[in-house]
C-alpha cells in the first residue's frame, strides 16, 4: 500500500464531517493481524480522553499538520510533559511507554498521524480512562 497525499486529503475531509472530528484508516493486512497500525486524521476540537494502554507502548508519527502529545501523572492528574510534533519540526514522532497516561490533540486543521501498538485492538476499559 502507498500512503499518498490524496489518501490523507480524503481522511481529512472525512474527519471534518465526522461529529468526533477524527477519522482512522486501518493499515493492517487483515483482521487477524496481531498488531494495531493506523492513520488517524484529527481536527482541532476533537476530544480524546486521557488514557493509557497497560500492556503496550504506542508509537505516534506526525505525517501532516501539528499535534501535541500530553503526558499525565496518575496521582495528581496533572500534565507532566507536552510535546509538539510536526513533520518538518524538531520532533516528528514519540513513543508512549506502556501504562503512561496520555492524550493527543491537533493544533492545525488537516493533521494526520500514524500510530502503532502491539497486540490486537481492545477497547479501553473504564480503568484506562483518567477523569480530571
Number of strands: 10
Label the structural class.
Answer: mainly beta
Tell me the number of helical segments per DSSP (H or I, 4 or more residues long). Answer: 1
Q: Give the overall silhouette.
A: globular
What is the makeup of the main sheet? 5 strands, antiparallel
* Annotated CATH topology: Jelly Rolls
Q: Please write the CATH class name.
A: Mainly Beta
Parts with pLDDT < 50 across at least 5 consecutive residues: none
Distance between the termini: 40 Å
Widest sheet: strand ordering? 1-2-9-4-7
Q: Supply the number of structural domains.
A: 1
Tell me what the CATH architecture is: Sandwich
CATH superfamily: Jelly Rolls
| Average pLDDT | 93
Strand content: 35-45%
Order of helices and strands: HEEEEEEEEEE
Query: What is the radius of gyration computed over CA atoms, rounded to a whole number of angstroms?
Result: 14 Å
Which range best describes the helical content: under 10%, 10-25%, 25-40%, 40-55%, 55-70% or over 70%? under 10%
Quickly describe the structure.
By secondary structure, the chain is mostly beta strands.
What labels would you give this structure?
Jelly Rolls; three-stranded antiparallel beta sheet; globular; five-stranded antiparallel beta sheet; 132 residues; mainly beta; 10 strands; 1 helix
Amino acid at each position: 500500500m502507498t500512503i499518498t497525499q490524496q489518501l490523507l486529503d480524503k481522511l481529512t475531509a472525512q474527519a471534518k464531517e465526522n461529529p468526533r472530528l477524527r477519522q482512522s484508516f486501518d493499515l493492517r493486512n487483515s483482521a487477524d493481524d496481531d498488531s494495531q497500525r493506523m492513520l488517524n486524521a484529527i481536527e482541532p476540537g476533537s476530544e480524546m480522553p486521557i488514557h493509557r494502554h497497560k500492556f503496550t507502548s504506542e508509537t505516534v508519527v506526525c505525517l501532516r499538520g501539528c499535534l501535541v502529545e500530553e503526558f499525565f501523572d496518575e496521582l495528581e492528574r496533572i500534565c507532566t510533559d507536552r510535546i509538539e510534533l510536526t513533520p518538518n519540526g524538531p520532533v516528528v514522532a514519540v513513543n508512549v511507554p506502556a501504562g503512561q497516561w496520555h492524550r493527543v490533540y491537533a493544533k492545525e486543521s488537516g493533521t494526520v498521524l500514524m500510530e502503532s501498538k502491539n497486540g490486537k485492538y481492545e477497547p479501553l476499559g473504564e480503568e484506562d480512562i483518567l477523569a480530571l
